[in-house]
Amino acid sequence: MKLTVVGCSGSFPSAESACSSYLVEADGFRLLLDMGNGALGELQRHCGLYDLDAIFLSHLHADHCIDMCGYFVARYYRHDGRCDPLPVYGPEGTEHRLTTAYADTPSASSMSEVFDFHTVKPSTFEIGPFLVHTERVAHPVEAYGIRIEHGGRTLTYSGDTGVSPALDDLARDADLFLCEAAFTHGKENIPDLHLNGREAGETAARAGARRLILTHIPPWTDPQINLTDARGVYAGPVGLAAPGTTYEI
Predict the structure, then answer these.
(1) Dihedrals φ, ψ of 102, to 5°?
(2) For every residue of the chain, which 3-state class applies, written as one string?
(3) How crowded is residue 200: how many other Cβ atoms within 10 Å of its Cβ?
(4) Mean pLDDT over residues 113-141, rounded?
(5) For 18-55, b where at least 16 C-beta lie within 10 A, e where not — what string?
(6) What is the per-residue pLDDT for 75?
(7) What pLDDT does 144 receive?
(8) What span, in angstroms and rounded, lies between the C-alpha atoms of 44 and 48?
């Protein structure tokens, strides 16, 4: 598998990065994890506008899904004809949320003309060549982490979450654990919302993940503090997500 960081800023785009969006590729198949603010423009640096094969939305906060509205325009009003429906996996109510956010779709069913919506629940299923397992994680809205397996290798993406036993299970022995670290240890302490760098490192250590990449760090959080905190509790390699960075898994 190849992972490309399209955007990794948390809550809102920074001067350097769009919000959460990650491109996973294997066997010619392209799966996009989330499409937050600014991600649609950045995606076109790495993938043709109509070359995605599926999209997974971890949850329906704007910094993870709002650029789907722009992508609807690109697919619905394409100059040489409307695109066929693209599989979109998201929490219950994804179609309604995106239709409401767009606010002026031609009809209440227009989104489904170019997106084939699938409701995510805790389960194991296939997306193209990937075997995926999803679990609900600790966030104020319905949110899912995802474990992606292909060719004997595993990628886990936390989505947005506080400390969660489900996330420990998803990250078990993962080759790469892409984990949010929005909070700063000792500064924010809001249960079931976000992880800090220390908690991300502790999760990786408990799970036995082989590599940890911290992501979803908002502009007001110092990433170097979170990196140091994670390294203090996790013995494996730790890095910071950066737009355009690729990882071979």
Answers:
(1) -70, -40
(2) CEEEEEECECCCCCCCCCECEEEEEECCEEEEECCCCCHHHHHCCCCCCCCCCEEECCCCCHHHHCCHHHHHHHHHCCCCCCCCCEEEEECCCHHHHHHHHHCCCCCCCCHHHHEEEEECCCEEEEECCEEEEEEECCCCCCCEEEEEEECCEEEEECCCCCCCHHHHHHCCCCCEEEEECCECCCCCCCCCCCCEHHHHHHHHHHHCCCCEEEECECCCCCHHHHHHHHHCCCCCCEEECCCCCEEEC
(3) 35
(4) 98
(5) bbbbbbbbbeebbbbbbbbbbbbebbeebbeeeebebb
(6) 97
(7) 98
(8) 6
What is the rounded (10 degree) CA torsion for 14, 16, 17, 18?
60
CB of 146 closer than 8 Å to CB of 180: no
Go through the chain and tell me how many residues it has.
249
Q: What is the pLDDT of residue 183?
A: 98
Residue 208 pLDDT more than 90?
Answer: yes
Predicted TM-score of the model (pTM): 0.98
